[in-house]
Amino acid sequence: MTGLKRMGKKSAKSLGLILCAIVCSLLAGAVFLLLAGFHPLEAYAGILAGAFGSKTAITQTLTKATPLLLIGVGVAVAFKGSSFNIGAEGQFYAGTLGCVLCEMALHNAPLPSWLMITACLLSAFLFGGIWGAIPGYFKAARGASEVVASVMLSSVMVLLVKYLVGIGGPIAEPRGIYPETQEIAQGARLPYLLSGTRLHLGFLIALAAAVLIYLFLERTTWGYKIKATGRNAGAAKYGGINVGMVTVSTMALSGGIAGLAGGIEVLGTAWKLYPGLSPGYGYNAIAVALLGRLHPIGIIFSALLFGMLNTGSNQMARSAGIPSTLAAILQALVLLFVVGFSIFEQKSLFVRKKGGAQNG
Question: Can you give the three-state secondary structure of 95-133, one letter per residue?
Answer without folding.
Answer: HHHHHHHHHHHHCCCCCCHHHHHHHHHHHHHHHHHHHHH
